Write the structure tokens for this entry.
Amino acid sequence: MRPRVFLVDDHGLILAGLRAELADDVEIVGSADEVGAAVEMILERRPDVVLLDVHMPGGGGEAVLREVTPAAPEVRFLALSVSDAAEDVIAVVRAGARGYVTKNISAPELLEAIFRVADGDAVFSPRLAGFVLDAFASEDRLGEAEVDPELNQLTPRERQVLRLIARGYAYRDVATELAISVKTVESHVSSVLRKLQLSSRYELSHWAAERRLT
Amino acid sequence: MNPEPRPHQGVRLGVLPQGTTRARVRDFCAMSVTTPSRAEIGVPHRPLRRGTDNALVGGVCGGLAIRLGVSERVVRVVTCVVALLWGVGLLAYFALWLTVPRAGEDRSIAARLLGGRNRLARVAVAVAVGVLVLVVLHPFSQALLGPLSWAFLLAVLGLIVVWRGATPEERQRLEELGRNTPLLRSRAEWTKTSAFVRVLVGLVLVLLGVRLVALVSRPIDGGAPAAIFGAAFVVAGAVILLAPWWLGLVHDLSDERRSRVRVEERAKLAAHLHDSVLQTLTLIERSAADPGQVTRLARTQERELRQWLFGPATTNHEATLAGALDALVGEIEGDYGVRVELVVVGEATLTEALVDLVAAGREAAINAARWSGAERVSLYAEVEPDKASLFVRDRGRGFDPSTVPGDRHGLAVSIRERLAARGGAATVRSTLGEGTEVALEVALA
């Protein structure tokens, strides 16, 4: 089944390009170039996947996420941006995006990512995996008064999976490498995404902000 | 004067018979609704209320002006003149301030303070304190103010009492007045009121200072302290009078500085964009016929711009592992036209071991770019407490390790030896048709 996709980007060129690249394989139900219109149309059309630009006037992708997610939790978001800045990546994922890819991703990879998000899985680019590893790296710095240690640490297996993704492995390569099924890889990644979104780790935001200053 | 009775304007003093209780009551009722907020010249209004809208300080003069139907300015000038006569005007002002209710309020400050229990005791205490203060301060202030001394001290006491008894609204107004009066407002922010108060305060201070200096030159009491005070008063008065112009100047200067900073910022940005982006765009236009070159140029520019926009602001970026790898990525993308995706986890200052690691990674990445046929090479570096690792992966054609071409073999050997000397290792895994991954590792001291 072709997923119903909605595009949000304030650059007309990018919208046109995405449309051209994706139109054969997914059903594009609409596009918007500003936050307000995007929220309205997404709530009206209820697409399966929203391809969401991170940087837009009026609050950016994060604003769209915060408006739509409470009203339509079944709509899934894949963030798409030119920015590699850690704070953008972390912010949009923590706001509820199921994945993050940069705009220079190739068309087949983007399609794969869209299908994966449509299936409810998480999409981690190597860079996002690297960010997460970096942000969760410091076990020793974890405070004593940690509320939920389970949410604030990665399991060794999750760490392994993320490392392989950061090394450029596709999910099925990861599965082969670790001798597990692709489904298991996906569940590990989803679990990492959940931790990333729910973790109260001080390091997450601190680390993201610090990346630009140090 | 208009002979017809005007609605909503209150009752004219001359029209209504005075003296009868009933008339006064009616009078009051009419007034409380229709008392204007400004004096209407020739039209007196009752009862006497301290003004709110036309108040400079306590609203006494404004209220009197409304009550008497004369202009506020006349009342003020008269008050000031009378104030100079042994301070009578000042005392009268404070007496009215305390005893006349403010417009819209039903009790005067004095009434409010004296209401409630223990009033006799409170009055006694207040009077005692007041007398004590007066007796103690009078000798000092007399040297400064001469015959105005009593009035001045009583006025200060009156001000304190006013503050104690003021309603919240009046207190708020007084605070606002206090904020507006002083000294640090530039000319643009002047209101009529604040200008008036400023000039008044400034002049009074200057006059006081001059008077003090004059006192000292005559051999009466006072002496050196009075001279110092006098000089201080003159200076303070002058500052208050001149502050607006000076502040205006400062404002203008800082505005100018800000806009200059903005212009410089913009020039820097323009220069950067010109040196990088515009140049590259020109090159791309020229080499439109060569797609490979276009891609290469675009990628180089993209990386550079990205680094500039999102990169860490460190000055010695070059001296870190991430910095060295960034440079490596630039080199390979520029030379071979492949995309190199770099992910670094952790960070470390460049040591000799890490330099070797990067050099090994460089060889591996060049190999991948040259031979694998893949469009993209992934670089992943991770710094752990005891070791640093670097993975170079491509998903190109791969090779069978048993049939390694000569140059590759040699390379692998040189890499292995170098890394082994650093307490590390190098492993190559490749599958035909699947791609290659080189894992490099050094120990960190």
Q: What stands out?
A: Confidence is low (pLDDT under 50) at residues 140-147 of chain A.
